[in-house]
UniProtKB/TrEMBL annotation, chain A:
<dbReference type="Pfam" id="PF14493">
    <property type="entry name" value="HTH_40"/>
</dbReference>
<protein>
    <submittedName>
        <fullName>Helix-turn-helix domain-containing protein</fullName>
    </submittedName>
</protein>
<feature type="domain" description="Helicase Helix-turn-helix">
    <location>
        <begin position="259"/>
        <end position="346"/>
    </location>
</feature>
<dbReference type="InterPro" id="IPR029491">
    <property type="entry name" value="Helicase_HTH"/>
</dbReference>
<dbReference type="InterPro" id="IPR008308">
    <property type="entry name" value="YpbB-like"/>
</dbReference>
TrEMBL record, chain B:
<dbReference type="InterPro" id="IPR004589">
    <property type="entry name" value="DNA_helicase_ATP-dep_RecQ"/>
</dbReference>
<keyword id="KW-0238">DNA-binding</keyword>
<dbReference type="GO" id="GO:0004386">
    <property type="term" value="F:helicase activity"/>
</dbReference>
<dbReference type="InterPro" id="IPR002464">
    <property type="entry name" value="DNA/RNA_helicase_DEAH_CS"/>
</dbReference>
<keyword id="KW-0547">Nucleotide-binding</keyword>
<feature type="domain" description="Helicase ATP-binding">
    <location>
        <begin position="24"/>
        <end position="191"/>
    </location>
</feature>
<keyword id="KW-0067">ATP-binding</keyword>
<dbReference type="Pfam" id="PF00270">
    <property type="entry name" value="DEAD"/>
</dbReference>
<dbReference type="InterPro" id="IPR014001">
    <property type="entry name" value="Helicase_ATP-bd"/>
</dbReference>
Amino acid sequence: MAISYRDAVFLYCLKQIKDERSIYSLFHLFQGKKSSQTIQDAHLYKLTPFFRALPLITRIELETIVKEFVSRGFLEQVASENFVLTIEGETELNVFQKCVTIPPKFLEGWKYHHLTTLFWERLSLLVQVSSNLINKNKGFIPIQNKQETQEWFKKFLKMQNANRYELAEQLYIELTECLHQEKSIEPAVLVLRLTGHNKIGLTSEQAAERLDMTTTHYHLEFLNILHYMIKTVSTMRNDFPLLSSLVQDVQKEVPLTLSTEKTFQLLDKGYVPNEIAAMRNLKMSTIEDHIVEIALHVKEFELNRYVHPDIEKRIMEVASKTSAKKLKQIRDQVDGANYFEIRLVLARNGGQKWN
Amino acid sequence: MELEQALFHYFQFNTFRKGQREVIDSILSGQDTIAMLPTGTGKSLCYQLPGYLLKGKVIIISPLLSLMQDQVEQMKALGEKRAVAINSFLLPFEKKQILQQLDRYKFIFVSPEMLGTELIVSKLKELDIALLVIDEAHCISQWGYDFRPDYLKIGQVRKALNRPLTIALTATATEEVRHDIAKYLQLEKWKEFVFSVDRPEISIGMEIVGHQEKQKRIVELVESLEGPGIIYFSSKKIAEQMASKLRDRGQQVMAYHGGLDQEARVLIQQQFIHGQLNIVCATSAFGMGINKENVRYIIHYHMPLQLESYLQEIGRAGRDGKNSLAILLYTPGDEQLSIQLAEGEIPDREQINMLFHVIEQQQLSLTKITENEELFIRSCGFSETQWRIVANYIASRESMKPSEVKEKFYHYITERLRIKKEKIAMVLEYLQYRGCKRTFILNYFKEKAASVKVNCCSSCGLDLNDFQKNTNLTHANTQNYNWEQELASMLLK
């Protein structure tokens, strides 16, 4: 029995984390948990595309999939929550990857997770409203009923200078232009879901069936096309004035987690980690997690405030030699370096490359 | 303006439907009113039209969040921008924004739990209220099948608002329920309108089928009956299964239930209304507030939990006045599932023991109970419905001793379960009744026997051939999909 698309995605991710992380780290990754640990792991194991890519996954589903892999001989258990791919597992995955790219070419969960839903809700509403406007149909039920989205949309519509026909035509031109530019995507994945004046769009389940895809495959292709569009329209604002304005108001940087943000502010005021831990009544290790997260995201972060340049150099030497990202191996070979320093150096030096 | 003129001006209808005119006259003459109008006769028009003609705000209390959302959307779709819903769907900042500008709105929908907060009530007090509307007013009565403890607060709120002109609307209410409505709303003098629940255009069928044959029978019915139709289920899982089975046989069908995300729900509703779907396999989450005129049949795969909800559900057929069909498939023993469902909706004794055990152990005050929602849901295993009952019950008894509340709560749930079981027994009696089904239902609602002559019900004689479809199955569109053409047809003129 050939493996399914979903199987391939899970095998791919399990292969990336090797036996170094628990299978539940994937659960947090797919759900898009904004914890320092999950964010760092996503970067460390090059799994950022999948951040919040399957938010509906449950622990039980994950466990079932892993169990199935073991019984099919694709996985081998090495610790209670850690597994490695067997040769069969690797082969199955390789065969699959010859036909289908995993992850999909444009999937960038970490970079766009805060924009994805927003972009889709606004785009689908814009198409529906434009289509109804040019057909002079006022009585329709908006398919996006979040108050927030509707409020935003009202303001957006007021700011448009074009008349209804020009607006709809501009939208048509930009959409076809954007979807034509890239040969590897399938525009039907998106267009089937859109609602017009007299035609209601399909649900994701219906679209998957229509295109003869499994639900997981369809869902990732849908995210892929949205991420492609967000990327394209925001790098070429002049070519896509209308589409790019759908996400213009949103803060571009990925925000820090709330708790990390507080730590960041205190560090900025000159407090040292020890003091912050005491002030916030948090464990020292938590504050260290925060600092690693800051190192990953804040360009101005001064690494050498926390790690001596010599130690940084030695850690990088060892890290580039050992393919494994196991911190323990590095610590064993670098005298005097602690885990915090190693994580910081990896985050700082690898983080930029991975982003 | 003449009332008919106003009707045309605001709703583009030429004539009133049965009962609407009388109810609206009563309100406009300034009398508190209780109106029992059958489903599908345009209950909402009974407050919307007076709302337009009266100066001041219309406050509508509505029990179901989804229903409220639907009503607001529909009003907006008709061009009324001044409609708003205040409920727990709102994010804190949205709520703040709306409350700050409350005066901008004309039709303000409020969920009953929101009436429990001081802030909302004080904001409402600042408004000039022309009309207070209690939708689905039977929820106020313990005898009602949908009893909502939150509704008991409405009386106090009404008093706090200085007893504005009030209308209570309901589709189904027995005499004792109507009595409760007046009592709890603290009405002093009121007018009551009761219009027959009978819908002569709907034929009422019942079939006894073996457990194994049910799905097969559904397939037969669906393939022979003129659509569109709705099939009701008590279980999400079976609704999904059946939908997928029918889809494999070429039907345009989707399942609809509370487990779907918001977008899918809207899409499926709209696809059904626009004729892109011919059938919906639904749980009771589907239907309230859906205005589709030409539903031709309603099938029940499982027996309903009360005759009241059965009547509501079959009432979604034939709103265009054309002949339509309701069929209930019954397998002896189905009532066991109904009892299980009823029991599951109410917290059981063990859960209540656990609840008070935790309260004692953690030395929590009863006033803090909703703040610890997660703790209780986790430790006592409450479902959403169960938790709502618990939170409401305790919220109104905060000042009492926990041990006392516990005893009373035991008594309360025993009583609630008894009522639910009685309702189920009544449905069973209906199913086993050999006489006219329509008469049975009407008598239950204290009405006289009906006078439908042809295809009245399965006891009086019902010929399913009269409901056959004329047209052949239209095949699903399997042509190649041209996305560019689709976009053009949406966006280019």
